[in-house]
């Protein structure tokens, strides 16, 4: 295996030379668990920790290694190494941190494509597809929609679902698959490119791990066995892994119960481009498209030129986004206020 099979490219190599990191080994984080990391190199897998100076100087958690990151390492023992630096990321997939207002959490980095998996039975929900789509678009990750478990429904029913999705979501490839009958697996395989990184996104139980197994044709990941523990009533999946295959790099992701919208303004525009195009013709610049007169969005809705469900989902996600933004601003302000307080305390202490 070469570093290129792992996703390495000339941009990373240029950076490595620029930063004089030649004396270090280069590898990719395939597993991150608290402060322990598994890093894969051309020829080996290392159990890694952060070098002290990195561990103690990082103030921003998002600067710490995540699954998908490229890192500079030094081996100090058999199979053990220290991480000295994280190389710049080409993309960051993140979500709103569960239970923490205004904070984000990195899911994975350096991803080229997002495979948004949704099963056609219970899980099927176009609003949720739009949500994942927005996250991909915001992170500059190319989305591919995978409808899974199609063995569970009739062909006609599937056709209807696909048309429903296409009506709402334009210009995103849709692949229908079954891990059981293996329909559609060939199509997925033909889309996967060696050296590109694919992150599987979707709710718990839609068949993500099974799909990875089907693609790589080996039983490498535990499936069915949902690796979760209950932490104060919250669902936490510890399982998170990056798998390198001839057909690209696959990142499995814990089922996301809550896919919160963060600062996804760019992604928002791409997902709801139809609505935002309409909005350019609204009379008021700050039109909320809910009750204003001369609102082009409401007009389109009235004329049946706009899908009402798409509109509802837009309003809901916009509200969530604004909510996240105000929480993030609040957090920033609190941080500043605390900084001021400490400064003032130090000042007054110095007087004595
Ligand atoms: N009928 C049917 N069942 C499937 C298919 N793919 C997966 N399953 C079953 O669905 C269940 C969940 O599959 P997983 O692959 O573990 O789902 P996951 O998305 O990885 O779930 P998390 O790891 O919790 O995020 C398992 O019991 C699988 O056997 C399929 O194509 N058809
Ligand atoms: Zn409007």
TrEMBL record:
Domain annotation CP-type G: ranges: 101-259
Keyword GTP-binding in record: yes
SUPFAM superfamilies in alphabetical order: Nucleic acid-binding proteins, P-loop containing nucleoside triphosphate hydrolases
Compartment list: Cytoplasm
InterPro entries, per database record: G_CP_dom, NA-bd_OB-fold, P-loop_NTPase, Ribosome_biogen_GTPase_RsgA, RsgA_GTPase_dom
Residues where GTP binds: 148-151, 202-210
Binding note for cofactor: Binds 1 zinc ion per subunit.
UniProt keyword annotation of rRNA-binding present: yes
Top EC class of this enzyme: hydrolase
Residues that hold Zn(2+) according to the record: 282, 287, 289, 295
One family name in Pfam for this protein: RsgA_GTPase
EC number: 3.6.1.-
GO molecular-function terms, A-Z: GTP binding; GTPase activity; metal ion binding; rRNA binding
GO cellular component: cytoplasm
Key words, A-Z: Cytoplasm, GTP-binding, Hydrolase, Metal-binding, Nucleotide-binding, Ribosome biogenesis, RNA-binding, rRNA-binding, Zinc
Gene3D superfamilies: Nucleic acid-binding proteins, P-loop containing nucleotide triphosphate hydrolases, Probable gtpase engc, domain 3
Single GO BP term: ribosomal small subunit biogenesis
Domain EngC GTPase: 109-257
Required cofactor(s): Zn(2+)
Predominant cellular place of this UniProt entry's protein: cytoplasm
CDD domains for the chain: YjeQ_EngC
Domain of life: Bacteria
Record-stated family: Belongs to the TRAFAC class YlqF/YawG GTPase family. RsgA subfamily.
Function: One of several proteins that assist in the late maturation steps of the functional core of the 30S ribosomal subunit. Helps release RbfA from mature subunits. May play a role in the assembly of ribosomal proteins into the subunit. Circularly permuted GTPase that catalyzes slow GTP hydrolysis, GTPase activity is stimulated by the 30S ribosomal subunit.
Subunit structure: Monomer. Associates with 30S ribosomal subunit, binds 16S rRNA.
Record-given protein name: Small ribosomal subunit biogenesis GTPase RsgA
Species per Swiss-Prot/TrEMBL record: Saonia flava
Gene: rsgA
